[in-house]
Write a structure and sequence with these properties.
The complex is a heterodimer. By secondary structure, chain A is α/β, with parallel strands linked by helices. Chain A contains twelve helices and 16 strands. Chain A folds into two domains: about 260 residues, Rossmann fold, CATH 3.40.50; about 110 residues, Rossmann fold, CATH 3.40.50.920. Helix content of chain A is about 35%, strand content about 20%. In chain A, strands 2, 3, 4, 5, 6, 7, 8 and 14 form an eight-stranded mixed beta sheet that branches. A five-stranded mixed beta sheet of chain A has the order 11-13-12-15-16, with helices on both faces. In chain A, helix 1 packs across helix 2 and helix 3 packs parallel to helix 4. Chain A is globular and about 65 Å long. By secondary structure, chain B is of the alpha/beta class. Chain B has a seven-stranded mixed beta sheet, with helices on both faces. Chain B has a seven-stranded mixed beta sheet with strand order 9-10-8-11-12-13-14. Classes of the chains: A alpha/beta, B alpha/beta. The interface between A and B is large, with 78 and 72 residues. Strand 9 of chain A pairs antiparallel with strand 9 of chain B, so a sheet runs across the interface.
Chain lengths: ~375, ~425
């Protein structure tokens, strides 16, 4: 056992490099800037590319261009930057461009507080782009998650050809923590599936049963078309409503139908407990402290820590809540993800423990919510 | 060479639209250069200029309004060998103004064709950044209020090394486009044309009028000698190749025993400029040398050398969950700003807890023990106070030992910084219990 000391943002950068990311573009913004600094240190010596865009729109635009050229790409920002990413997010969703986007959340709304944490973008990440189609959002809890979930994020972006968010938080990204890098279990590396390179490409064509089109990069012998317009399999504008409907449904189903394969979570289940605590992000750390303390106090509860937030891992939530009478949802906002929990568990009592003032939710506050209905 | 025009998708432009002439001139330029479709990517955005990518058998990337240059930048950096042609209207140029300026400053080898027809054609003839104020357009009197932008002047000022203003009706347009594509660097062409669908409904504009207008302007016809410099991509790769590889994170082997068993919580309450965050990192590293798990949660304002700076440090043999500190074992009061930000925590401190109080800093009453240190009297400069406070802790055998601190300094610092920090740590005396 020997530890290294890493901040969450550095772990994300190192995870990205380990995943094969060789292109990063970003625009400085607290508390995400150190991801950019780390990528600037890490990528050029590896032959990779790290750019500072003239703004966030340019930064994500660079990434989408490089991704279409076949590179694994990442950008990092905070809430104000996610706002500016919005138009290109819908491009990446609708036109199936793999990209990993880190949102190191800070207290909003708007420019808010640059150096205070929050989980205020959780619904924004899911719903903040035109068209309303799903994205993947993973939420790290600690520095180890920052590393491993970044690897998972790249794998998912490659497999499903979609934007994958890492919903971090100032209190994870800029917090340093000991980590035993030797003990970190890492997934295998996934690459986007390639189309044959000796025949013309239908850039959005799928075989029966296939959910994600094969990819070829712009720049090779076979011509590749990419477009933000509503397109058919050939990548040209289409007005064929049946083809449009098929494509939109595929864009939704490719993620919703596969969610059970990437429902990352930790479930600490104690039999015959009345209450299930559900938490994600940095608040899950306080929730875990409460879980342990309640056990010591002889008033055990169960705990579900969600690390995949979108698409909603409904099966995981339903199974974890099966025997609980009451659910307490902990969030560093005024109540966002709890809407999903209430939607999935209409028959349960679902209570909220939240706070949005730039401070961490303390174990004492969660304990109070657990103890007092 | 054969035409790269897409026979299956002929141009769908209004009869008389200059864009059609430009389409054929661009195709002619490709043919003159002997380019195959896969050696080219056409990057376009929204508006009639955004149809260009469909007219050609080339790679294509069509995206959001005004953002074509951004996709092109990513593509060109990733694939330096391909010819990247960006088409944009005067609308896209306006909405993507920041990208245009940046592209001029960057000098990446892209060719930007601005199809300038003085209005937003597709959406109904609203005014653009280049609309003359006297024009009658869909945006009514608003177009009379804004001054049209001289794209070429702006591009030159912004550092574009190749700028050309011309008419879409020019006979040698293909040669001029070829010249722009062949230029190794950012090349911009401001190509004036007629929008018969919208602009000329109420405004008279003929090829002759365009020629006359151009003749009145200073000629801008290619290389801008004062802006000639290395191409961005080549320059980038040259500088990137000289960057040193970053080593893996230091792995810190446990070699000491911490003076106190069990979980320890320390808060450094200081202000910006005291290197509080670095001291916090050192305390964590020192903890790692004793095999402890550690977390460092920091709090500071967005200002750089002003305002409170606080570091909350937990060292524990067990897993650390919550990273905040409610009842610290040790508080180091380095500066009034930090203390004032966390006044509430003092009343929660236990009698066994310790406050290291640096002279000149007032702390609220508490049950905790207080240990005074006069760092000024010891000749320690303010930027070293946080580090000096770690030396005090080590010498008092609180949280860390002098050996743990020395090991941490050797892990964290090198050469001069290491020498001076080791010297400082030796120089600091423990002060006195209050």
């Amino acid at each position: 056992m020997a530890y290294s000391l890493l901040e969450g943002n550095e772990a994300i950068a190192r995870g990205a490099v380990a995943a094969g990311c060789r292109f990063f573009a970003g625009y400085p913004i607290t508390p995400a800037t150190t991801i950019y600094h780390n990528m600037l240190n890490l990528l050029p010596p590896l032959g990779g590319i790290c750019l500072q865009g003239e703004d966030e729109i340019a930064s994500i635009g660079f990434c989408l261009g490089a991704s279409m050229a076949g590179m694994k790409v990442m950008t990092a920002t905070s809430g104000p930057g996610i706002s500016l990413y919005s138009e290109n997010l819908s491009f990446a969703i609708g036109s199936e461009i793999p990209i990993v986007i880190v949102d190191v959340q800070r207290l909003g709304p708007s420019t808010g507080s640059a150096t205070r944490g929050a989980d205020g973008d959780i619904n924004f990440l899911r719903w903040g782009s035109s068209g309303g189609l799903p994205v993947i959002v993973l939420a790290p809890v600690d520095v180890q998650d920052c590393f491993t979930l970044t690897l998972q994020a790249f794998n998912l972006a490659e497999e499903f050809r979609c934007p994958v968010f890492l919903a971090s938080n100032k209190e994870i990204g800029m917090t340093r923590e000991s980590i035993d890098l030797q003990k970190v279990a890492t997934p295998g590396i996934v690459e986007r599936s390639a189309a044959p390179s000796n025949q013309p490409l239908l850039p959005f064509g799928v075989d029966p049963g296939q959910q994600v089109p094969n990819f070829l990069p712009i720049g090779n012998k076979v011509l590749v078309r990419q477009t933000s317009s509503t397109h058919g399999a050939d990548g040209y504008i289409t007005t064929d409503s049946a083809a449009i409907a098929r494509n939109q449904e595929r864009l939704e189903n490719k993620l919703l139908s596969a969610i059970n394969r990437f429902s990352f979570h930790e479930h600490y289940s104690i039999k015959h407990t009345d209450t299930l605590l559900i938490a994600y992000g940095v608040s899950a750390r306080a929730a875990k402290a409460v879980f342990k303390a309640q056990k010591r106090r002889g008033k055990p509860i169960s705990l579900l820590v969600l690390k995949t937030l979108w698409p909603v891992p409904e099966n995981v939530i339903q199974q974890a809540a099966r025997d609980a009478r009451r659910i307490v949802v902990v969030e560093m906002n005024l109540g966002q993800y709890i809407r999903e929990i209430k939607r999935i568990l209409p028959q349960k009592q679902v209570d909220f423990c939240g706070q949005m003032d730039g401070r961490l939710i303390t174990p004492a506050r969660i304990t109070e919510a657990v103890d007092h209905e | 060479m054969n035409s790269l025009l897409n026979a299956a998708r002929p141009p769908v432009l209004c009869p008389g639209c200059t864009h059609e002439r430009i389409t054929h001139s661009l195709d002619q330029a490709f043919q003159n250069m002997g380019l195959a479709g896969h050696q080219i990517v056409i990057v376009s955005d929204i508006g009639c200029s955004g149809l260009f990518d469909t007219f050609f058998h080339t790679h294509a990337m069509h995206g959001l309004h005004g953002r074509a240059l951004t996709y092109a930048t990513g593509l060109k950096m990733a694939r330096p060998e391909i010819n990247v042609i960006v088409t944009m209207g005067d609308g896209g140029q306006g909405i993507g103004g920041a990208h245009l300026l940046a592209a001029c400053r960057r000098n990446l080898d892209l060719t930007l064709l601005i199809l300038n027809n003085f209005n937003f054609g597709m959406t109904g003839g609203q005014f653009s950044a280049t609309t003359p104020p006297e024009a009658q357009l869909g945006s009514g009197f608003l177009s009379a209020l804004e001054r049209p932008l001289d794209i070429c002047k702006v591009a030159r000022c912004a550092g574009a090394p190749y700028v050309r203003r011309c008419s879409g009706f020019q006979k040698n347009l293909a040669e001029q486009i070829q010249d722009a594509i062949e230029y190794e660097g950012f090349a911009l062409m401001d190509i004036w044309g007629i929008c018969p669908g919208r602009y000329t409904k109420k405004n008279r504009l003929t090829p002759k009028m365009i020629d006359d207008a151009l003749a009145k302007l200073p000629t801008i016809d290619g290389v801008v000698s004062e802006n000639v410099r290395p191409e961005y991509g080549q320059h980038y790769r040259q500088l990137a190749a000289a960057q040193k590889k970053v080593s893996a994170p230091a792995v810190i082997k446990p070699q000491f025993t911490a003076p106190q068993a069990g979980r320890q919580e320390v808060i450094l309450l200081g202000s910006a400029g005291q290197r509080v965050i670095t001291a916090g990192e050192l305390l964590c590293i020192a903890g790692l040398t004793a095999g402890m798990k550690t977390t460092q949660k920091n709090e500071y304002n967005i200002t750089v050398l002003r305002g409170p700076s606080i570091s909350e440090l937990i060292l524990s043999p067990q897993e650390i969950n919550y990273t905040g500190i409610e009842t610290p074992n040790v508080v180091v009061a380095l500066d009034q700003e930090g203390v004032d930000r966390r006044r509430g925590l003092f009343e929660r401190m236990a009698p066994k807890a310790l406050i290291i109080q640096i002279s000149g800093v007032n702390v609220p009453t508490s049950k905790a023990r207080i240990h005074h240190v006069d760092l000024r009297a010891l000749g320690v400069k303010r930027p070293d106070w946080a580090l000096a406070s770690l030396a005090v802790l080590a010498k008092l055998q609180q949280i860390i030992t002098p050996q743990m601190l020395e090991a941490a300094l050797k892990i964290r610092f090198k050469s001069n910084a290491l020498d001076s920090s080791l010297k400082l740590v030796k120089q600091v005396t423990t002060g006195k219990a209050a």
